[in-house]
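Full entry
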Amino acid sequence: MRLLDVAAVLDRERNIRTVDPEAEVLKELDDNDASYAILSHRWGKEVTYDEMTGLSVMNPRKRDDVRGRDGYQKIIESCKQAKKDGYRWLWIDTCCIDKRSSSELSEAINSMYRWYRNSKTCYVYLHDIDEPAFPAKQDFSRFGKSNGWPEWFSRGWTLQELIAPMEVEFFNKDWVSIGAKKRLTSKLEDITGIPEQVLEDGLVTWFGERPCTAQIMSWAADRKTTRVEDRAYSLLGLFDVNMPMMYGEGSKAFRRLQLEIMRISSDHSIFAWNPKAQLGYRGSVLAEDPSYFRGCHDIKNVKPSLFVKRIKEYIHNGELAVVTKHGELSSFSNSVDSTQLLRWDITNLGIHLSLPVLCNDPRDRYYKVILPCCDCHGILITVDLLQTDEPRYCHGYYYYRPPYPCPEFRSLYLDCFREPEGSHDSRWLEDGAASSHGFTRCGTFPREVAGHTVTFSSSPGDTLIVVVYANDDARTRFAVGLGHYNDKRWTLRSRHTISCGTHLFPSLTTVERTFTFLEPFFMWRLSVMCGGR
């Protein structure tokens, strides 16, 4: 890896006009031998590799521009802190990687987790914190775009940069230390969802086991990256896999990541994403992006030796709604081969594996497979499949009432190539009646609606649109909820008008309503945010 020479950087800064132009500020070293500090930060206007190496020979005007950037000040302040802590070497991603070289960039991305893990200390620079203390609670007024916490916690790359180093120290915008990871594990777990034990000991030593794939993915579910491919690339080190960078492939990068994980692991929780996906969805058994694992933070794997026992317990307790005849469970138990359970093959037909399968009527082509993983309550995870063409199965969420007959241990080919598909529903939004009474549309939630057509797809979460209307002269507003669920449409309007108080243009009014529907276990809790136009 290429490291900054802390003393050389600071000396050049002090003597920028007289420094030897041949003086080197970067040096190639082995990360396993070097003792170095490392920086983790949110990118802004940064300094590149060629600007850092060529600073002393730049014309004065360009040099002053580079030195005036916030990114350059981060480099200088990081070097000062490293020198203070007794480190000769420092690594910063913006200026230590020559991103003009695709091979060097690929090597850096595949090595980054190891580089952070091997560092002696990691400096986390929180550019949006002014106070001399770590934030004590969520503040949506300051950090509304990052779930109420500093922006650093919402970025994809910073996930591995928090987990990998053993020593992490946080700094505010003025480079005042505001806490260390080891003393903030409880608060960091609240912010990130990462268990304290992982923050203290890392992934490998977590009670002697690694967290399952679905749980690690859940930590990245709400994080963002500038490039869509980086949602996958930023997770490579967390799963100890390597793969070439192919910017431009879009969401295919995340599918490649899942296939690489499968080549080195038999962790079935990788199929446990989005258990409450939209009915009518059909697609690959691989998730489209980490957000599909939202809510999977409590999933754990079940050991193969205990899997059959757990299935039998749930059948006896009625949890899986299975009706069996005498002797069928014993026959099922004898059919389960733990070796086959752990063996996966990625073929041109899909992912070949063996799992217990529940099928009410084979003619319907709908199946439910039982995964050897469970939630925090010990409930086994099941996945709905649709048989598309012999012998392949894809994800196919449906509403089907049990009971099921005794499960069968069956060989399956799971489709990992199919593009997502599903039903779409469009509705015409007629505002005429509202307009005639002086109301105008002032907002929609959770996404913007242009024109008069509201379209619902089978994408996860795309089942509800709330339209808010306002009559500012009457200081009154009301909301209309439009939805699509289980191939059924519904419309609800707030029963009471929403008073906006004494001000003609209030900044914010919030009304909470609960809409309950007849479909089993389905309830919306809706908070309508009504702001001024």
